[in-house]
Write a structure and sequence with these properties.
Blueprint lengths: L1 H17 L1 H29 L4 H29 L7 H23 L8 H22 L5 H23 L7 H29 L1
């Protein structure tokens, strides 16, 4: 049983390494889609002026579900076009690596609806925490993908850390509307920039 598990595990790792270039190419439309959704959501949040902790958490929780759903549909279409299984063993490994930090991020969304979550400063900690957790998830997935994915994850981790430090030294609480702009600039802007980079570099190699 153990030898069979080890053989399967090695086969999955070998497949992931062999398909790293394919995964890199497939990431371009996925990250571009996530970037556009993030940029549009940041603009909508700013324009609507949702300035309560619960409204902020609910809005961006819905945005994350929409982004994940569209990216999964896009990935499914790519798998069908390539005549490959969608929920393959390599895909399961990547999903398992990303799940813990993503699950922790969703716990914070649930926690924001608790009675004591009424202070605006508490909502201001959410973007920084989400950036760090999401960066950890991307970095974990990077162990099965090209090196650039790890660097992409580090960008989110560093952005969240800088925001934490800025908030710690801030004398007051900035307007909640700025939270939406920060979310749009990071989750939208960074995804769009990385997706554009992948698309342009792949085009350049054709």
């Amino acid at each position: 049983m153990e030898s069979h598990w080890a053989s399967e595990h090695l086969q999955v790792i070998r497949t992931l390494m062999e398909r790293s270039a394919v995964y890199r190419r497939a990431l371009a439309p996925v990250t571009l889609t996530a970037g556009i959704i993030g940029l549009v959501a940041g603009a909508i949040g700013w324009w609507q002026g949702w300035d309560t902790s619960r409204a902020f958490g609910l809005f961006w929780g819905i945005v994350s579900l929409v982004a994940i759903g569209l990216c999964l549909v896009l990935t499914r279409f790519q798998a069908i076009r390539a005549r490959e299984p969608f929920w393959s063993p390599p895909t399961r490994r990547v999903a398992q690596a990303m799940l813990p930090p993503l699950f922790a991020g969703w716990i914070t969304i649930v926690a924001i609806f608790m009675p004591r979550w009424g202070d605006a400063l508490q909502a201001w900690w959410l973007p920084a925490l989400w950036m760090i957790l999401y960066g950890c998830a991307i970095h974990a997935a990077g162990f099965f993908m090209p090196r650039g994915i790890k660097l992409f994850g580090w960008l989110f981790i560093l952005a969240g850390g800088v925001l934490f430090l800025v908030l710690s030294k801030s004398g007051g609480v900035p307007p909640m509307r700025w939270c939406h702009l920060i979310m749009g600039a990071t989750f939208g802007g960074l995804h769009f920039a990385y997706g554009s980079y992948l698309y342009l570099t792949e085009k350049g190699t054709v």
